[in-house]
Amino acid sequence: MSTDSTGYRVRRALSADELAHIHAEITAARNTTDLLMRVFRAVFTPLLADLGATLDDISEDNKLRTGQYAVPTSQWQAIVTAITDRAAAWGTAALLTFDLIELMPASYDDPETPAPVWQRVDRRPHTLQLAVSREAIDVIGACEARLQALAEHYGREGRIYLDALHSWHHHAVGLFSMAFGADTRITRDGDLSLFASTGSGFVYAVIFHGQRRHCTADGCHTMIGDDGIAYPSHRDAPVLDHDHTPSYPVGWPQPGTWSSHS
């Protein structure tokens, strides 16, 4: 296996004709798998040709290591952008990150090589079909009620309320995203949590993480329940014999924030 002085087997800019063919293949793709296969062939066919090789030469004993080939960063970024724009039609753009790491060659800085001028096309479906179960609607109402309660007890300028507000609204708005397809179903996942099934097959949850009420005294590992009863935070945890000071008052709404998890 030969390499040049940079350590790559092939390191060069793609020609205008090669870029035009890559873009045509991206545009012609019929689904995500077809898109990846077309791009892989369109990118590596000319790079392998520089070595007198073809994709047919690739085998279990002669694997293609994509990181041994490199194109200018400007061209690399343009190709990846075109790929993700095309995948938006199927809601799979956000899922291609790891595939593209394996699929694409490496890149190198070359200020002399401009990015190809490709018109970007919004390929997202025209409408988002969002189905929300009645139980999920109740959860959404409960989340808004929790925010109102936090504002009333801890103040609208306090971090407890603002952190909760920003995290909830960030993830609530995300439910309307087409990043994972144009057909999303929202169901209940807990008193203050939601579960999303998307058209691309990707599923995730928007989960409320409530703060556990604890004693704020140094060295005291005591939790305090909603009934005011103190108990160790974990087995064999030291519990000091004193009047515990709760991290938030008993009887007040539990602070917390929301996050999303796949």
Describe this structure in words.
The protein is α/β, with parallel strands linked by helices and 262 residues long. It folds into two domains: 10-108, no CATH class; 129-211 and 247-261, no CATH class. Helix content is 34%, strand content 18%. The chain contains six helices and ten strands. The protein has helices at 16-28, 32-49, 73-87, 97-103, 134-154, 159-174; strands at residues 10-11, 69-72, 106-108, 129-132, 183-190, 193-197, 203-210, 222-224, 230-232, 256-261. Strands 4-5-6-7-10 form a five-stranded mixed beta sheet. A three-stranded parallel beta sheet has the order 1-2-3. A hairpin with a 5-residue loop joins strand 6 (193-197) and strand 7. The two termini are 41 Å apart.
